[in-house]
Amino acid sequence: MSQPLFNKVAFIGLGLIGSSLARVIIAENLAKQIVASTRSVKTLEDAKALGIISEGYSNPVDAVKDSDLIVLALPVRATQKILETIQHHILPNAIITDVGSTKGNVVEAAHAVYGAELPIGFVPGHPIAGAEHTGVHAGKVDLFANHKVILTPLPTSAPWAVEKLIRLWQAAKAEVICMDVEKHDEVLAHTSHLPHLMAFNLVEQLANREDNLDIFRYAAGGFRDFSRIAASDPQMWHDIFFANKKAILNAVDGFEQQLAQIRHLIETEDSNALMGLLGHAQAARQHFNHMLAKKPLMEKNNVTQQFTIQPGPKSFQGKFSVPGDKSVSHRSIMFGAIAEGTTHVTGFLEGEDALATLQAFRDMGVNIEGPKNGEVTIHGVGMHGLKAPKGELYMGNSGTSMRLLSGMLSAQKFDSVMTGDASLSKRPMERIAKPLRQMGAQIQTTGERGTPPVSITGNQNLQGIHYDLPMASAQVKSGILLAGLWAQGETSVTEPEPTRDHSERMLRAFGYEVKTEGNRISLQGGGKLVGTNIQVPSDISSAAFFMVGAAITEGSDVTLEAVGINPTRTGVIEILKQMGADLSVENERIAGGEPIADIRIKGSRTLKGIHMPEDQVPLAIDEFPALFIAAACAEGQTILTGAAELRVKESDRIQVMADGLKIMGIDCTPTDDGIIIEGKGKSGEWGAIFNGGEIESHHDHRIAMSFSMAGLRTSGEIKIVGTETVATSFPTFTQLSEQAGLNIQVSEA
Ligand code: NAP
């Protein structure tokens, strides 16, 4: 058996937090011995009876003797006295940590005892977790699970000590973050201390009214929610407010200013500005919802949602409107923001990716109303009206936002930094940074291997260039063209294969001239965009899952309404037709510069395997995961080549799909730029193709939705883990697929 992490752990203070950590240490077998010292003998006796400690001491000196980990889990104000008492009795390499809610004063207390040179094992910490009750009986082994723990290593802290504490808290299933002491106190002042102060204050304000009884009796849910935290321990908050005085006063000042602003807007009945403020706040809350959620969404090993699909009634029927096109939704906000005048958008995709773009422009001072039922109104600020964002621009999971904005931000007068979630942080950004640098942009990809964060120094002197795109990427093309709007002279791009031309079409719809001559696209810098109305077509990439679902299911009949059939996106239609699908494109029309149509697809004949045409690859790039499911159900072999791009999407889609297909009993071979899939279909037979099994989606929405469709031809249950990202592009996916006949259930892990 491996050695426990610690030999002897001493807790000084053993209430809610201390005893919870002690319970983790026991459960995970992290120490040979746990002892404690508390104020009262009763706590020590109780802790012994509960089996949490082997020995308890009234004198902390006795507890810390020979301990290699000392945890101060008592009120912060007692820190200095305890450190003075134990100072000369601890092992030279003992790790000393604490759990206090403020950090500046803990470090001050340590300096008061030790002088300038603190012990190398001293690493302050703060678990962001609590409960209504305190004391040794209130502790729980899972108190910290899925919560954050902040460590604030000091310049004197030894890396091995920090490393061991990280392992300790990770064993408690917490997410460990390291930051410096000042940052901790400032962040907590805003996110925890100010809200508590406001809650106490509001309850006090209402309690002082003469009619307070009535007010509390009739209090609405809003009051209950808002004031819940005012039931916390007054002594603790008293201590925290004094301990973090400077940062809290700053936060209170900010609050007062904001309050004065909203007061003024109400007093002067400034409807537009009030709507702008409320809408901005609401969107910010929604956008950061997943960050505020207790469980981090995108991190590996922290899967929060899964789909379970049972083999079930084999029918797939109905007429559906899938959500708006993601690419068009992104661009409607970007171009509306830099246009002159107002832009109205309908059919906007209210998924997290497009909302990330919307939030970014709000952060740059653009007043945007909505989205409400897919409608958004953008009050454009013109080509030179964007303002410096106050902080980093968070792009969530959206590669489109980050690459297109790289172009736009490179040409602004202000500096900016773009960050993203775990998945976006692994995606290549040098491919856009490189051509932008040739235009004079000062842009850095500060992650490892040319990945985010992307850091940009504002520069208003970009030069137009000609760029031969080494890869067929609409995002890189668009990023360059967007920088070109502000650049001197002509900016042009030649693409190896035609890619999505939504940027070109929409720029034209906004009155900006863009030339397309064969594979060469060009525009002149220095023009302007004029606000317009944009109807976002339904997303063919979302429709593709239903198209495949219908094509592989006997007797199915599905119509997808008002789907965008921009010729740069219709590869999936062409490929499914070549595979023999019974598919018709009906009622073709134009909306907002983009061609749309209803697509009807029936399950009337078995698909056949094909060598997928390489010229269709860029036109179906996002649809391959779904097409692989179709290929598995087809008769004969399907070969895909020329699709290396798939390896750098939200996940390595070739490998991840191959892994999943193999689990479900499909013979396939991934190659450098594609895959070979041995279809199991037989002409005229509609039985099960897949075995079922557990699929890891790698937080890739399209992987998750593709394997869901395999549920229409499975003999066993399919479990797909990590499906929360489906909301980024298709928030109504499970609802619509269930309506169509798929036996799908969503559960939180
Ligand atoms: P708790 O349940 O009240 O436990 C406090 C412990 O400290 C008790 O064992 C108490 O001894 C001991 N203690 C109190 N004053 C002492 C003194 N002067 N000398 C020696 N021991 C003393 O409190 P807690 O919730 O665990 O909080 C402990 C620390 O965690 C605090 O610094 C707090 O800021 C921090 N924290 C709390 C929360 C939360 O939500 N509760 C969250 C994050 C961090 P007796 O048992 O003998 O009274």
UniProtKB/TrEMBL annotation:
Pathway: Metabolic intermediate biosynthesis; chorismate biosynthesis; chorismate from D-erythrose 4-phosphate and phosphoenolpyruvate: step 6/7; Amino-acid biosynthesis; L-tyrosine biosynthesis; (4-hydroxyphenyl)pyruvate from prephenate (NAD(+) route): step 1/1
Gene Ontology biological-process entries: chorismate biosynthetic process; tyrosine biosynthetic process
Entry binding sites for 3-phosphoshikimate: K326, S327, R331, S473, Q475, D622, K649
Keyword Amino-acid biosynthesis part of the UniProt annotation: yes
InterPro entries with a match to the protein in the record: 6-PGluconate_DH-like_C_sf (IPR008927), Enolpyruvate_Tfrase_dom (IPR001986), Enolpyruvate_Tfrase_sf (IPR036968), EPSP_synthase (IPR006264), EPSP_synthase_CS (IPR023193), NAD(P)-bd_dom_sf (IPR036291), PDH_C (IPR046825), PDH_N (IPR046826)
Annotated NCBIfam families: aroA, PRK14806.1
Stated family: Belongs to the EPSP synthase family.
Protein name as it appears in the record: 3-phosphoshikimate 1-carboxyvinyltransferase
Originating species: Acinetobacter shaoyimingii
